[in-house]
Design a protein that fits this description.
The complex is a heterodimer. By secondary structure, chain A is mainly alpha-helical. Chain A has one domain. In chain A, 69% of the residues lie in helices and 7% in strands. Chain A has helices at 7-30, 38-56, 58-65, 69-82, 85-89, 114-142; strands at 99-103, 109-113. In chain A, strand 1 and strand 2 (109-113) form a beta hairpin. The two termini of chain A are 12 Å apart. Chain B is mainly α. Among the domains of chain B are: 264-348 and 363-513, no CATH class; 562-705, Four Helix Bundle (Hemerythrin (Met), subunit A) (Up-down Bundle), CATH 1.20.120; 708-766, no CATH class. In chain B, 75% of the residues lie in helices and 2% in strands. Chain B has helices at 2-22, 26-30, 32-49, 74-97, 104-123, 127-145, 152-183, 188-192, 204-218, 227-230, 236-244, 247-262, 265-287, 292-313, 316-347, 363-377, 383-396, 402-424, 444-462, 464-480, 496-513, 515-529, 534-556, 561-584, 597-615, 619-639, 643-664, 676-702, 710-721, 726-734, 736-765, and strands at 54-61, 66-72. The longest helix of chain B has 32 residues, at 152-183. Chain B starts with a helix and ends with a helix. The chains are: A mainly alpha, B mainly alpha.
């Protein structure tokens, strides 16, 4: 029933999903300074996958992302925990933000930080959670 | 020093791969970790032996006075050495004992993690850190005892050990908090050196009881002793490790650590009586069993009781005896467990009544067993002898209940000699009995540990005085608070303790000759008595918990969702409303003067969609109306310039609608099931909740008890967090610990949904 056969939705999903995913990463990365962040980015990415699942079915989604959503969830938690390590190594209070600036050719510079690692963890955890919900619910449908 | 502990967890995680890589030499390879610890800690002996100590502090949660501080003094060094030495041989032993087991990698993972936790426990100075490691040992030992998880008995024993020790652990946490309040610090050294007399503090009684509950459950003191012998379901290397150096000694370690500050008359009365009671219970139980590992487990309980009692007596001699006996027991008990396991492995049974005359086939094992059992029975020239002499001597001079305790100990020494004889003589001498497997000498990996431990016991007793000067006196310093002047020696001359030893030896051997009659009789008596024993109480309590859980589930969680909502809303808003009216009163200072038209439009949208959602007869329409409601809320957020909240709200609403639609397809047609009365009740409850919330919101604009924290975030987000988006900086930097907790909640929710759907699907398949 959820495996909709409308051409319009399928075609739209085909083009929208990559854009949505790109946008979600954009939101994730700019989150520290502008509206966005791991949580919002994760929601957008999950929305992209859900759109795909609605038009092509949950099996297609599974074979598209290859990973079990539960693994995404676990990876998210690991990223979250890993962001605590740099501060430990420096002997500072746990989860103290650490910043590394890498100069790039030209005038640009790359700001990396442990909060970014943490935000990636949030992103993955959100995507993992929602996909777990949706895929399970859609598959329960088939039975 | 933190590295030694953390390295353990890293090695543990890598263990499964290392086992795959190194195959049959995995035991030897992994033993390099504890062996490197032996080398590391041995380097500290010259420094610590002089009475110095070393405190290393790493930041953890400085805001809560919780730090990863590690403290190395005589006592923790002694324990660290025991853990790493016995750990080395246990890992080598396990490689042979569990050779080819499909879960060997997992076994090493858990036992090395256990080792590291135990090391952390004895090194920790901060009580919260200590508690974390304490619980880690409980959890890892749960997995170890339940290692053979296909067997129901192993699972049951593991769960029992977990419940008893973790239950005690919770008491301990409360006790630690009380201690920290009393001493004004979360550091053990800080509490002990705070100058506050703990026994005179008002909270002393409560703290004492809580800490003792934690220590007694962990160290299997009466009436919590039953979990330890049941834990014998674990593979032998585990038993050797858990019971000789580690887990069960954690409670004793804690008591010894707190002894300088906590000792009082009450302390000494409780410790002495509980210890003595444990000793007598355990030694009788030990004699009543035929299973070698069970016998050893009960003799461990007895040793733990002895240690607790010695701390309770608390004289200079008793504390010296404590340290010596602790060391002696770890050495011989580790050896005995490994040997018993080796015999079981080589022969196929560990039931003493089926073992006889193995001396010819296993001469080395027989000799080692004899030596270790001699140390157990306290026969010279083993180190156990010195310990027993000191024990008798300290009892002779004890002021608490003097001769009563002495008599009790002579009695238990007699029984212990009989137990030791049963272990060392019964399997190896006499007529050979056919065994399930052809007896053969165990491989080197299984004998190496016992050999080294027994040689250490011999050397320690021959060179008792140097050992005391190097290490033992600094351990005594940590336990007693001063350096005892007792000099250790193998030969004290003919005196009262020696006479008592001789008497108990002779009577014990006589008892052993009657073992085949005494043991079955005792076994029957104990089977009768255990109907009233503490283990019975444990089962009664577990049944009670299950019963009350199912009762409250039937009562509160009866599956009617509407009722859940009513209970939730009523309890929340009755409490909130009550507090609100008491502290604020019934004002309603709403000012709508400077509002704009479009604010009214949004408000109107909100109200209409809410009304429509609650009255419509179509599910899909209700979901859509809820979506409109959510979008209107998002509009409000954006209007009041919180774009992050607005975006999040929009996305969450979208996904919620999708999820609801997915769920709704599975539901039956929309029908009216509730009675008019129920609907009226629901309307009243909902209106009540809404009205209280409205009052609270209006009041929140009106009053400000203290300055808003948001100004701090606005000022510092770019300065300290290097980000202009305040919401994000709060989430990933200022309050990152909260967010970390939240993503874990998210994960748990996902797993909950997953298991719910999966279980339902499986039910349907059945």
């Amino acid at each position: 029933m959820m495996n909709s056969n409308t051409v319009i939705l399928r075609t739209a999903a085909m083009y929208l999903m990559p854009l949505q995913l790109l946008f979600s990463i954009f939101l994730l990365l700019r989150g520290h300074d502008e509206p966005g962040g791991g949580f919002i980015g994760g929601l957008v990415a999950a929305g992209a996958f859900v759109l795909f699942a609605f038009s092509y079915g949950s099996d297609a989604l599974r074979s598209l992302i290859r990973l079990d959503p539960r693994d995404l969830l676990g990876a998210g938690l690991l990223f979250g925990l890993a962001s605590a390590i740099p501060s430990l190594l420096r002997g500072e209070p746990l989860l103290t933000a650490q910043w590394w600036t890498i100069a790039l050719p030209g005038d640009a510079e790359l700001k990396l930080s442990s909060p970014l690692i943490f935000d990636i963890g949030v992103y993955l955890a959100v995507v993992g959670t929602i996909l777990t919900f949706v895929i399970q619910l859609m598959e329960a449908e088939h039975e | 020093m933190l590295l030694t502990v953390m390295l353990g967890f890293v090695v543990a995680m890598a263990a499964p791969w290392l086992v795959k890589l190194s195959g049959r030499y995995s035991g030897w390879l992994l033993a390099l970790y504890p062996f490197s610890l032996v080398v590391y800690f041995a380097q500290w002996i010259p420094v610590i032996g002089q009475g110095h100590s070393q405190l290393t502090t790493y930041q953890w949660f400085p805001g809560l006075d919780i730090s990863l501080s590690l403290y190395l003094d005589g006592l923790s060094l002694l324990f660290a050495l025991l853990i790493s030495i016995i750990g080395t041989f246990v890992l080598i032993y396990a490689g042979s004992y569990l050779k080819g087991h499909k879960d060997l990698g997992r076994f090493y993972l858990i036992i090395i993690a256990f080792m590291a936790s135990m090391l952390g426990l004895v090194l920790a100075d901060n009580v919260i850190t200590l508690f974390v490691f304490w619980e880690l040992t409980s959890i890892t030992s749960y997995f170890l005892i339940g290692f053979q998880h296909e067997q129901a008995s192993a699972r049951k024993a593991a769960l029992q050990g977990l419940f008893v020790t973790v239950g005690g652990g919770l008491c301990l946490l409360a006790g630690f908090v009380l201690l920290a309040i009393m001493g004004g610090s979360y550091s053990i050294q800080g509490i002990l050196s705070s100058g506050v007399s703990l026994p005179e503090h008002g909270l002393y009684g409560a703290a004492l009881v809580l800490v003792l509950l934690g220590a007694f459950t962990k160290s299997a003191q009466f009436p919590f002793h039953f979990w330890l012998p049941n834990a014998m379901a674990a593979p032998t290397p585990v038993s050797a490790f858990l019971h000789s150096a580690t887990m069960v000694k954690a409670g004793v370690y804690l008591l010894a650590r707190l002894n300088p500050g906590m000792a009082s008359d009450l302390w000494s009365t409780i410790l002495t009586s509980v210890g003595a009671l444990t000793v007598i219970t355990a030694v009788v139980m030990a004699l009543s069993h035929r299973d070698m590992k069970k016998i050893l487990a009960y003799s461990t309980v007895m040793a733990l009781g002895t240690l607790v009692m010695l701390l309770g007596i608390g004289t200079e001699l008793a504390l010296t005896a404590f340290v010596v006996f602790l060391l002696a027991h770890s050495l011989y008990k580790g050896a005995l467990f490994m040997l018993a396991g080796a015999v079981d492995h080589a022969v196929g049974t560990k039931d003493l009544s089926e073992l006889s005359g193995l001396r010819k086939a296993m001469p080395v094992t027989a000799l080692l067993m004899l030596l270790a059992a001699m140390s157990l029975a306290g026969i010279p020239p083993l180190f156990g002898f010195i310990a027993k002499e000191l024990l008798f001597e300290s009892l002779l001079q004890a002021s608490v209940w003097g001769y009563g305790l002495l008599l009790l100990f002579v009695f238990s020494a007699i029984l212990l000699v009989a137990v030791a004889a049963a272990l060392a003589l019964k399997p190896f001498y006499g007529q050979y009995l056919a065994t399930p497997k052809t007896p053969h000498e165990p491989p080197v990996a299984e004998l190496l540990g016992p050999v080294v431990l027994i040689v250490m016991a011999l050397l320690l007793s021959l060179f008792a005085l140097p050992a005391q000067q190097w290490l033992l006196s600094s351990s005594m310093l940590a336990v007693a608070g001063y350096v005892p002047e007792v000099k250790l020696a193998l030969w004290h001359g003919v005196n009262m303790p020696l006479m008592l030893s001789a008497v108990s030896l002779v009577l014990g051997i006589m008892l052993w000759t009657q073992w085949h009659r005494v043991q079955p009789w005792l076994s029957r008596v104990i089977a009768q008595l255990s109907r009233f024993g503490p283990e019975r109480g444990y089962f009664k309590m577990m049944d009670g918990i299950t019963w009350s859980a199912s009762w409250q589930t039937r009562f509160l969680q009866n599956g009617v969702l509407g009722l859940y909502m009513v209970v939730l809303i009523l309890s929340t808003f009755l409490l909130a409303g009550y507090t609100f009216v008491r502290s604020y009163g019934l004002h309603f200072p709403l000012d709508v003067q400077d509002s704009y038209v479009y604010e009214w439009v949004v408000a109107f949208l909100l109200i209409v969609s809410a009304l429509f959602a609650s009255t419509t007869r179509y599910r899909l329409a209700a979901v859509a109306a809820m979506g409109v409601l959510g979008f209107a809320v998002a509009l409000t957020f954006i209007h009041f310039s919180a774009p992050d909240l607005g975006i999040t709200q929009l996305l969450v609403e979208t996904l919620t609608v999708i999820l609801l639609v997915l769920v709704l397809f599975k539901l039956p047609e929309f029908v009216q099931l509730s009675s008019p009365w129920e609907r009226a009740r629901d309307i009243v409850v909902a209106l009540f909740g809404g009205v209280v919330m409205l009052f609270i919101l209006v009041a929140a604009i009106d009053i400000q008890y203290f300055d808003s924290i948001s100004s701090y975030y606005i000022d510092n987000s770019e300065l300290l967090g290097y980000g202009r988006n305040i919401v994000n900086v709060i989430l990933v930097d200022f309050r990152v610990l909260d967010t970390l907790g939240e993503i874990f909640v998210l994960a748990l929710a996902a797993l909950g949904v997953l298991s719910m759907i999966k279980l339902r699907a499986e039910d349907r398949v059945k």
